[in-house]
Design a protein that fits this description.
Radius of gyration: 22 Å
GO cellular component, one term: respiratory chain complex I
Strand order of the largest sheet: 1-2-3
Helix content: 10-25%
Order of helices and strands: HHEEEH
InterPro entries: NDUFA12
Keywords: Ubiquinone
Distance between the termini: 66 Å
Pfam family, one: NDUFA12
Protein name: NADH:ubiquinone oxidoreductase subunit
Structural class: alpha+beta
Number of helices: 3
């Protein structure tokens, strides 16, 4: 029952019933990535007058987070190339890093040097700053 309600009312927990219905009716499955995300394109393969290109979308396996799309699929989704990674021997480049989840709002979030939220001690002021005073 909980999954039914989540699918019916929320989009951030994966996909809604409306999205699944649209995908079933108008989508053609192109492939799946290592995270279990499934990629689709328009069955008719016609150029959409609203978008001016072929419509492509993804149904996420789990929470909806755009950073979970691997580099090869990202290029296909954003029309950088027309061949999906399932139809070619795509190999990530050495500089492309594996996915790391978005840690914003957690203890593992990035905090730059000098942040008051950082556990480290802040360096003392050096006296090289003069505050601005009006007039």
């Amino acid at each position: 029952m909980k999954n039914f309600l989540l699918r019916f009312f929320t989009w951030w927990n994966s996909y809604t019933f409306g999205t699944k219905l649209y995908t079933t009716r108008f989508g053609e499955k192109v492939g799946e990535d290592e995270f279990g995300n499934v990629y689709y394109r328009q069955k008719s393969k016609e150029i959409s007058p609203d978008f001016r290109f072929e419509r492509r979308w993804v149904l996420y396996n789990g929470p909806v987070e755009a950073s979970r799309i691997p580099p090869g699929w990202w290029g296909w989704m954003h029309h950088r190339h027309d061949t999906p990674p399932t139809q070619e021997a795509y190999k990530p480049r050495p500089w492309q890093k594996p996915h790391r989840p978005n840690m914003t709002g957690t203890r593992e979030a990035y905090r730059p040097a000098g942040s008051i939220l950082r556990d480290a001690h802040r360096p003392a002021a050096t006296g090289d700053y003069d505050a601005w005073t009006p007039g």
